[in-house]
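anyone seen this seq b4? input:
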Amino acid sequence: MTTRERAYARANNQKAAQYTELWIIGRPEDIAAMVQVASASGRLVFASTPTRMGGDDTRHRRYLRLRTT
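predicted toks r here
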């Protein structure tokens, strides 16, 4: 591995370590509260639209991307 390749790999690892990606599942009002707190803290980078779990399950899911630093 060349020096350039090592530097590129290190930079990519540092970029990836700056974020946490997770799916949250729950009642719509609980998810809304979590998103509001993440937004108020300045850590929220991206939030997907709420999606129903399907069937007779009343829960929703959302994908969140949060800053770790």
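The chain is about 40% helix and 40% strand. The helical segments are 3-17, 28-41. kinda curious what u guys think
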